[in-house]
Design goal:
Chain A is an alpha/beta fold and 66 residues long. Chain A is built from two helices and three strands, in the order E-H-E-H-E. With 159 residues, chain B is mostly helical. Chain B has two domains: 9-39; 48-158, Winged helix-like DNA-binding domain superfamily/Winged helix DNA-binding domain (Arc Repressor Mutant, subunit A).
Chain lengths: 66, 159
């Protein structure tokens, strides 16, 4: 396995990180294409079960950003 | 718990990014990607026991009760009026977490047909004494039962 691109599930808070990600897009900032975004209304909404479920479905990492 | 399960806490990242901080978001995603890349690919099949045990631990009442009591015990004190600092509370929480996780790992092993203490030990690598001790606990809560002897080896099954 040489240069693999990890699959990371990112739980982003609607009001903070999601808007940050949006702004990053608008300002044309480059970031790795490894994340799969899930928008949540608050990062407090993320249950530890979600994280486990993501790993069970075979993602390589999880990022919770609020 | 990810560390106890051998999945490694470096696969899980938590960060605070405000809506105005696009640059910070890029940094966070880049560091997370680099760190997960360093860990390599994750194979859920190789960790099916660990994931199932972790799921049971999170769904179980013990951990939820402990977490729910944290604020009360560290600010107002326990039922004896003793106050605990966060560090000592978390030490206890970690011990409870590890014990619950190990119990659930044993439960998973028995469920999948590793029915003797030695079989369980070979499958999950926990030491024999610890396994018998936790099995006794699982018996008390009616999760696992002793079904009889086979070639002078006690055999267990999930209830």
């Amino acid at each position: 396995m040489g240069d693999f691109e990890p699959r990371i599930v990112a739980f982003l808070c609607n009001w903070c990180a999601y808007a940050g990600a949006d702004l990053a897009g608008v300002s044309r900032l480059q970031y790795p294409p490894s994340i799969r975004t899930v928008r949540v209304m608050c990062s407090g909404r993320v249950d530890p079960m979600f994280v486990l479920e993501a790993f069970k479905d075979g993602c390589d990492g999880v990022l919770v950003a609020g | 718990m990810f560390d106890i399960a051998g999945i490694g806490k470096d696969r899980l990242h938590l960060a605070w990014v405000s809506s105005a901080e696009a640059q910070r978001f890029v940094e966070v995603v880049t560091t997370a990607t680099e760190s997960v890349k360093a860990q390599g690919k994750f194979d859920p099949k190789a960790f099916s026991f660990e994931l199932a045990a972790a799921e049971m631990t999170l769904a179980g009442e013990t951990l939820r009760w402990m977490v729910g009591k944290e604020v009360k015990i560290t600010t107002q004190g326990d039922v004896y009026g003793r106050k605990w600092d966060t560090v000592s509370f978390e030490t206890i929480l970690d011990a409870v977490l590890e014990r619950e996780y190990q119990k659930n790992l044993i439960y998973q092993a028995v469920k999948e047909g590793y029915t003797s203490v030695r079989d369980i030990n070979e499958k999950i690598g926990l030491d024999l004494k610890r396994i018998s001790y936790l099995l006794a606990d699982l018996e008390k809560t009616n999760k696992v039962g002793f079904t009889g002897m086979k070639d002078r080896i006690p055999v267990f099954a999930v209830l």
